Amino acid sequence: MFCPPEFDVDGRYHAKPATVWSLGILLFVMVCGSYPDDKDLHMISKNDWSNPDPSQECCWIICSCLQLDPQWRIILEEMQLHDRFMVMK
């Protein structure tokens, strides 16, 4: 499940987009308590997924990570700069 879809299609992947995919799966599991099913992934790919438990911001981050096309995923460096992941000192 943590393996990005491009690996299943052509057996290859790039490290950073694959890491973003894996982080998206992990975040989904953490907030939803289960792995995304095909229906979830279909809705996520259309940026039409929401869940009443996590915030809209959290749903947006999950959708940004779990785009089927790696070119449409959030960039790892951008993800690190997102407000949710910034640590206050």
UniProtKB/TrEMBL annotation:
Protein kinase domain segment(s): 1-85
One of the protein's GO biological processes: regulation of mitotic cell cycle
Molecular functions (GO terms): ATP binding; protein serine/threonine kinase activity
Keywords: ATP-binding, Kinase, Membrane, Nucleotide-binding, Serine/threonine-protein kinase, Transferase, Transmembrane, Transmembrane helix
Taxonomy, superkingdom: Eukaryota
Chain segments annotated as transmembrane: 18-36
Reactions catalysed according to its record: L-threonyl-[protein] + ATP = O-phospho-L-threonyl-[protein] + ADP + H(+); L-seryl-[protein] + ATP = O-phospho-L-seryl-[protein] + ADP + H(+)
Keyword Isomerase: no
Keyword Transmembrane helix among record annotations: yes
GO-annotated cellular components: cytoplasm
The enzyme's E.C. designation: 2.7.11.1
Family the UniProt entry places it in: Belongs to the protein kinase superfamily. CAMK Ser/Thr protein kinase family. PIM subfamily.
Protein name (Swiss-Prot/TrEMBL): non-specific serine/threonine protein kinase
